């Protein structure tokens, strides 16, 4: 099995970042450019010209992160390969550092499907007029927190205004945690803008965020697991906001439940190779079943081995245990949350309003569930 690794691109700063954001396009502008380069993706309801056959190879993208545990399990245990082998399809994997990079790869035809955060998926769909991708299923829910210096957390609990002039990090501009942080700060009466605001927000690769926090260069970050746990347990940070507390269940059916990772596919690929997408979903469900029914110690061991192979170092047992305790793994895409997520991005000037009615295509998931008794 071939695996390609994409390191996170350096974040634009200073004049370069101002040029990138000229005209207020931000992430949306990048995704529009990427989508414009992919002119053969069928619009919703259109018919693909390619015959519906199994693909020779499925090119799958994901992150080396606990929130992408179904991908790590499916790859490590050969669950994707086993399902795809029946139709003569092999799987080639690509490891990305952030959602926008995976979206760009989908738009460019470099990969066929990807695990990514809901906000990049929504932005890609909206900016391409529905042509960029389809969400097939959920993968992970929960597992994101705003962690800051302990003294700052203590002060902010009684007066959130102490966050003015603080420097906080997120994994990437326009990503799921970036939008969540900007939304929360705005709700607290603190201005946030891609060019500045009361609080300085610095999109930073997760590993670098840990080092910057240790050195005192930043005051905290809104992060997915296991990075929130690493800052808490390895660098002395304190939790100021657990994102689970911001979801009352009205959109997702249960308090504290919110989408963190989804499985998306190129519409062009799905139309041309539905048998391959069916097999991918069966492998995805098999990975979820294993995660949800296997002893936690065995789950931790496998995931740590995969993270070590992909990211270069294992997690401390206390870190992986804390991180897994805040995550749940589900095939439910939790689509009721998407309008809220999009509106949050719109309010943060990182997206434009759009109709999301056709973003989720649950037909593949429905077929896969019928074919798996444990789904």
> What's the main sheet like?
7 strands, mixed
Count of helical stretches: 16
User: What class, by secondary structure content?
Assistant: alpha/beta
Number of strands: 14
So what's the CATH class of the largest domain? Alpha Beta
CATH topology of the largest domain, anyone?
Answer: D-Maltodextrin-Binding Protein, domain 2
- Distance between termini? 26 Å
Kindly report the name of the CATH homologous superfamily of the largest domain: Periplasmic binding protein-like II
Main location: membrane
Family: Belongs to the CmpA/NrtA family. Belongs to the bacterial solute-binding protein SsuA/TauA family.
Organism: Paeniglutamicibacter terrestris
Protein name: ABC transporter substrate-binding protein
What does this molecule look like?
The chain has 375 residues and is an alpha/beta fold. The strands form three sheets. It has a seven-stranded mixed β-sheet, sandwiched between helices. The protein has a five-stranded mixed β-sheet with strand order 10-7-11-6-12, sandwiched between helices. Strands 8-9 form a two-stranded antiparallel sheet. The chain folds into two domains: 27-143 and 258-371, D-Maltodextrin-Binding Protein, domain 2 (3-Layer(aba) Sandwich); 144-246, D-Maltodextrin-Binding Protein, domain 2 (3-Layer(aba) Sandwich). Helix 2 runs parallel beside helix 5, helix 4 (79-85) packs antiparallel against helix 12 and helix 12 packs across helix 16. The chain is built from 16 helices and 14 strands. Helix content is 43%, strand content 18%. The longest helix is centred in the C-terminal third of the chain and has 20 residues, at 274-293. It comes from Paeniglutamicibacter terrestris. This is ABC transporter substrate-binding protein. Pfam families: NMT1_2 (PF13379). It is found in: Cell inner membrane; Periplasm.
């Amino acid at each position: 099995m071939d695996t390609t690794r994409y390191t996170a691109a350096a974040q634009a700063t200073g004049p370069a970042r101002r040029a990138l954001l000229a005209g207020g396009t931000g992430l949306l502008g990048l995704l529009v450019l990427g989508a414009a380069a992919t002119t053969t993706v069928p619009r919703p309801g259109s018919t693909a010209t390619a015959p519906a056959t199994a693909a020779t190879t499925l090119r799958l993208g994901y992150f080396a992160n606990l929130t992408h545990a179904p991908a790590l399990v499916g790859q490590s245990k050969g669950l994707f390969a086993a399902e795809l082998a029946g139709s003569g399809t092999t799987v080639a994997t690509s490891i990305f550092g952030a959602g926008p990079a995976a979206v760009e790869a989908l738009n460019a035809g470099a990969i066929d499907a990807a695990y990514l955060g809901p906000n990049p998926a929504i932005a890609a769909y909206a900016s391409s007029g529905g042509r960029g991708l389809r969400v097939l299923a959920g993968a992970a829910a929960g597992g994101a927190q705003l962690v800051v210096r302990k003294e700052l957390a203590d002060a902010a609990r009684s007066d959130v205004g102490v966050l003015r002039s603080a420097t906080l990090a997120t994994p990437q501009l326009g990503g799921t945690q970036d939008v969540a942080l900007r939304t929360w700060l705005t709700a607290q009466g603190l201005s946030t803008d891609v060019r500045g605001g009361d609080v300085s927000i610095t999109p930073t690769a997760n590993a670098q965020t840990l080092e910057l926090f240790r050195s005192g260069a930043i005051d905290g970050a809104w992060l997915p697991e296991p990075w929130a746990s690493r800052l808490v347990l390895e660098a002395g940070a304190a939790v100021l906001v657990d994102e689970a507390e911001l979801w009352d269940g009205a959109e997702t059916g249960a308090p504290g439940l919110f989408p963190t990772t989804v499985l998306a596919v190129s519409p062009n690929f799905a139309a041309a190779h539905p048998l391959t997408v069916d097999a991918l979903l069966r492998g995805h469900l098999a990975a979820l079943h294993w995660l949800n029914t296997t002893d936690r110690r065995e789950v931790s061991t496998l995931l740590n081995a995969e993270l070590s192979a992909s990211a270069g170092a294992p997690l401390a047992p206390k870190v992986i245990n804390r991180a897994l305790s805040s995550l749940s793994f589900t095939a439910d895409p939790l689509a009721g949350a998407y309008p809220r997520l999009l509106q949050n991005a719109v309010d943060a000037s990182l997206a434009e309003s759009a109709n999301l009615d056709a973003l989720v295509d649950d037909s593949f998931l429905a077929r896969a569930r019928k074919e798996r008794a444990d789904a």
